[in-house]
Amino acid sequence: MAATFSTALDVHCSIPNCSDKKYLKLPTKRFATFCKSPKSPPNESEEPHNQNPSLSDQLKPLSTTILSNTLTKQDPSQTQLLNKPKSIWVNPTRPKPSVLTLQRHKRSSYSHNPQIRDLRQFARKLNDCDTSEASILAVLEEIPHPPTRDNSLLVLNSLRPWQKVLFFFNWVKTQKLFPVETIFYNVTMKSLRFGRQFQHVEELALEMVENGVELDNITYSTIITCAKRCNRFDKAVEWFERMYKTGLMPDEVTYSAILDVYAKLGKVEEVMSLYERGRANGWKPDPIAFAVLGKMFGESGDYDGIRYVLQEMKSLAVKPNLVLYNTLLEALGKAGKPGMARGLFENMVASGVTPDEKTLTALVKIFGKARWARDALQLWERMKANRWPMDLILYNTLLNMCADLGLEAEAETLFEDMKGSEQSRPDSWTYTAMLNIYGSGGNVEKAMGLFEEISKVGVKLNVMGCTCLIQCLGRAKRIDDLVKVFEVSIQSGVEPDDRLCGCLLSVMSYCEGEDSSKVLSCLQAANSELVAFVNLLEEEKTSFETINKEFRGILSETAVEARRPYCNCLIDICRHRNLTERAHELLYLGTVYGLYPGLHTKTADEWRLNVRSLSVGAAQTALEEWMETLTSIIQRQEALPDLFSANTGAGTHKFSQGLASSFAVHVEKLAAPFAQSEEKAGFFVATREDLVSWVESKGPSLSATT
């Protein structure tokens, strides 16, 4: 019979807590252990499966025995600790680690390093010293403790200027006291990335490859993001492809960065391919990645792409943050979808995200571009009611929208609100917007009053405000005030640009006598070459070759966006001074140099003259040229379409001069068979039969008429 014996044991058991590394001590429990020998010896062939059991396996029988004595009598099937262990706090906003989370380096045991204070003081001294090599070497000689691995890493992490980080890193390598590991390269590269020094980063990476030092996930991520910050997109793609060849899986930061790189390169297919590849590998895109996709589709105006982004976010239950909402709103604005932008904004507010200044500015721009005046004004009322943040840029955007839509009263209310604001006082762009509003409306007295106010409040008038005011005064034929504004602006430091010169040219086109000379003197001070070219146009002996050469020289020195207005104004000047032949020459040169793309469009059913971007004089000249061309075609009995049309635009701006009315007068003067369309505003139409009959009735006298 087996022998049985018992003894009492004192067992102290402690269970470690992995989060705070404190220990939960169970109360000492005295219990009895009974040992009983078996009747037969154990089978030697029955070996335990684990010769070296883990700590958890060793503690399992003890924990079962201990906890069994703490069970309640009512329910012995449940285990319950006598003392409740300390709870572990889990951040609910931090997502669970995904398969792409970086495996960070193990931290050095700084807390157990008694030399840490001395080394940090040494690092501060190194940070404060001069960046010259002699100064840094002098400080390095005073290092308080030997540069061991941990000491060197501590100092390296404590340095701030990238020059000193790189110098210290190279100095550590020359000491050859320990093998330089990957973590040293990573710390140095991150400092270089902050300083936007991609060349040094790439040199270190190539050095790692040459010396056989492992490039881990953090290394590649640092290289790629540094290349992106330095706009070296080609290098970012190159190192990302090298990373993939090594078999390393990019982390969330790297994926978002490389998506942005491909998007900025315009490689939409590569972006989507990379996105799908990452999703297949278990990557859950964050709001930053979706912001990259939304911005990419917005730049190209791809409405379907933006919808795809919204659907992906919904399917993955990704909650957009404020930055993502702002990006998507800007994308929808570029895609020309104001209705969808308004819906997205309402969803944003309903989800509890408070819009900021960028959100509201983007939405105001969208409404202004779509000419949704009522929606924009309702948004402004909501801003005030909800006390949403409004900065100077938002106020100026609202004023510019009012200028585009001709909302003078609303603009004045906004302007007064800004005057009473402490944080958004009117600046030069605010006054420019108000001058634009008054100038477009022809309100000369208010515009001049605002000009006097600018000098009193100490705001410097910019060139755009000067241009708006000169245009307003020119239309009102107040040339003396125009000269005064120009001279005061030049004295205050305004430098005339191409737009201001174009405005003076425009005023010259409808001035006569002494007034024309006054404007010409202003233009002489702004751009003497333009004045010389205008005088050249008036000389009869000037050949076409000379006009071509001088005109090409002027265009080469003019900003692209101002070239067509220059040509329009010069044509207007020629027509106003009865230089019709010069006007036709300038229109021809403007067409040759690409200033009027799409002036003529042809289909099998319709030929159209598009003069929406032309001035009144240029549009009249283009009509005369077109009629002469059509006459020649009809006389040669060539094939013609059924319909001919001329498009002047509808003039949706409240203060537009109305090109259509001037065009209609000239059509009537030529007795051309075009009539205004009843279905489309701004269109003049004629049938083939009407045009043929008109040519036959005019005969060879058409050239004399035009």
From TrEMBL:
<dbReference type="InterPro" id="IPR033443">
    <property type="entry name" value="PROP1-like_PPR_dom"/>
</dbReference>
<feature type="domain" description="Smr">
    <location>
        <begin position="609"/>
        <end position="692"/>
    </location>
</feature>
<dbReference type="InterPro" id="IPR002885">
    <property type="entry name" value="PPR_rpt"/>
</dbReference>
<dbReference type="Pfam" id="PF13041">
    <property type="entry name" value="PPR_2"/>
</dbReference>
<feature type="repeat" description="PPR">
    <location>
        <begin position="427"/>
        <end position="461"/>
    </location>
</feature>
<dbReference type="InterPro" id="IPR011990">
    <property type="entry name" value="TPR-like_helical_dom_sf"/>
</dbReference>
<protein>
    <recommendedName>
        <fullName>Smr domain-containing protein</fullName>
    </recommendedName>
</protein>
<dbReference type="GO" id="GO:0045727">
    <property type="term" value="P:positive regulation of translation"/>
</dbReference>
<feature type="repeat" description="PPR">
    <location>
        <begin position="462"/>
        <end position="496"/>
    </location>
</feature>
<dbReference type="InterPro" id="IPR002625">
    <property type="entry name" value="Smr_dom"/>
</dbReference>
<feature type="region of interest" description="Disordered">
    <location>
        <begin position="35"/>
        <end position="59"/>
    </location>
</feature>
<feature type="repeat" description="PPR">
    <location>
        <begin position="216"/>
        <end position="250"/>
    </location>
</feature>
<feature type="repeat" description="PPR">
    <location>
        <begin position="391"/>
        <end position="425"/>
    </location>
</feature>
<feature type="repeat" description="PPR">
    <location>
        <begin position="321"/>
        <end position="355"/>
    </location>
</feature>
<dbReference type="Pfam" id="PF17177">
    <property type="entry name" value="PPR_long"/>
</dbReference>
<dbReference type="GO" id="GO:0003729">
    <property type="term" value="F:mRNA binding"/>
</dbReference>
<dbReference type="GO" id="GO:0042134">
    <property type="term" value="F:rRNA primary transcript binding"/>
</dbReference>
<comment type="similarity">
    <text>Belongs to the PPR family. P subfamily.</text>
</comment>
<feature type="repeat" description="PPR">
    <location>
        <begin position="251"/>
        <end position="285"/>
    </location>
</feature>
<feature type="repeat" description="PPR">
    <location>
        <begin position="356"/>
        <end position="390"/>
    </location>
</feature>
<dbReference type="GO" id="GO:0009570">
    <property type="term" value="C:chloroplast stroma"/>
</dbReference>
<keyword id="KW-0677">Repeat</keyword>
